Amino acid sequence: DIQMTQSPSTLSASVGDRVTITCRASQSIRDLLAWYQQKPGKAPKLLIYKTSRLESGVPSRFSGSGSGTEFTLTISSLQPDDFATYYCQQSESYSYTFGQGTKLDI
Amino acid sequence: EVQLVESGGGLVKPGGSLRLSCVASGFTFSSHSMNWVRQAPGKGLEWVSSISSSSFYIYHADSVKGRFTISRDNAKNSLYLEMNSLRAEDTAVYYCARDDGDLFGYFDLWGRGTLVTVSS
Questions:
Q1: Count of H helices and E strands in chain A?
Q2: Which residues of chain B are within 8 Å of residue A92 when distances are taken between CB atoms?
Q3: What is the phi/psi pair of residue A73, to 5°?
Q4: Which of A46, B6, B47, B100 is 20 to 30 Å from A32 at the Cα level?
Q5: Is A71 on the interface with B (CB under 8 A)?
Q6: What confidence tens digit (pLDDT) does each residue in A46-83 have?
Q7: Cβ separation of A96 and B100 shorter than 8 Å?
Q8: B8's torsion region: left (phi>0), alpha (psi -120 to 50) or beta?
Q9: What are phi and psi for residue B41, nearest 5 degrees?
Q10: What is the pLDDT of residues A5-15, one digit of tens each?
Q11: B102 pLDDT higher than 90
């Protein structure tokens, strides 16, 4: 299986900050990476797919980049609603795998 | 309204069985592959199973292979997960998730989840 490793596991930031979360794959996944946001007690929400494509309705302060084995999710200016846990997920292999998550808190 | 609603969770003893259901509404169910994703208490997301739109392709995580079976009924807009030989480590919230297409590999619509607890 393809292993996905996110860093950091926890990130403390403030409203207005620019933050970046990294996701590394154990082998090349081309551009087949998605990012999800999850708030406590809620289902995950798709933010970005195919590395950099923004899901409809997602604010433009979210962006994604990368290719091969290294990917990033950037939030350009943190808003109060952005404090949540973020997961990356690969779909190069049909044994889909998620990263362990990055908790973004104040 | 476009939504997925899971049901069937509950408390079951180790070695027992359970069948989860997910009913879809508001979109053309038969055009999308479907998935089950679980989340153990306080832990991250784990993909469990996927099924293509026509049921031709089926995939299961190694952790559930041979014990869980995914299936669907397009006439009833329903997805199922048959879970046998349940273990304590299967305790989790189980989410039904829609693929944006047919095995595109990313999940654009999620249900609220149903909790499965495996305990004696």
A1: 0, 11
A2: 105
A3: -115, 125
A4: B6
A5: no
A6: 999 999 999 999 999 999 999 999 999 999 999 999 99
A7: no
A8: left
A9: -55, 125
A10: 999 999 999 99
A11: no
